[in-house]
Amino acid sequence: xxxxxxxxxxxxxxxxxxxxxxxxxxxxxxxxxxxxxxxxxxxxxxxxxxxxxxxxxxxxxxxxxxxxxxxxxxxxxxxxxxxxxxxxxxxxxxxxxxxxxxxxxxxxxxxxxxxxxxxxxxxxxxxxxxxxxxxxxxxxxxxxxxxxxxxxxxxxxxxxxxxxxxxxxxxxxxxxxxxxxxxxxxxxxxxxxxxxxxxxxxxxxxxxxxxxxxxxxxxxxxxxxxxxxxxxxxxxxxxxxxxxxxxxxxxxxxxxxxxxxxxxxxxxx
Length: 269
What we know:
Layout: H1 2-28, H2 32-63, H3 66-94, H4 98-113, H5 115-141, H6 150-169, H7 177-205, H8 228-237, H9 245-262
């Protein structure tokens, strides 16, 4: 439940900030009611596109069975983990210029295609955030015991996002943009690690990867990953009480790469 709430919260905040940036640009440039109608039409289309993607994934799963279903689920876990990493690194590189880039894209689209351009830019921006959320939630739903709490956690995450976006928009001092995105980025990378661990577990179970040594250790006497607290830690970080050597190697490699990718850029001169 915790990972679902956090993912919906973070992605919804981003989507709401995008809408706020586009809305303020349209108001400043006197696009009028027609421009705002195009903005809201784009928001609706973006949400609908994300919903279609979610429906396609569920429908595809319903059509598959046996080995094909296992392959599909392993693939979706890897895609979800990869998307989270890609999104975090993209925000790290382009987050500071997001407002400027959105304004430029909207100005160019409005000049070329008028109201259709406004709706298109908005729809693509919202669909991107919504599609990422749909893939993440599908990946989380593959974790044991997460299906039942998915909807409630998603609704709570959406409500919390609205409150956060309002607070950020009001410029409240306790919410700093840089700290908000830095903290949430590391949390998302931790969720990506949990999805990656689940995928590797399935690859090992299917005989596609060797376990090498299994288990490498047994810390179940301290915290079993089948207990309530252990299950929560497993969903948030990928913790395993009895990991194989292969799992530990993949986990360590992942965090070594992420630590290198997230380290501050060196300034020259």
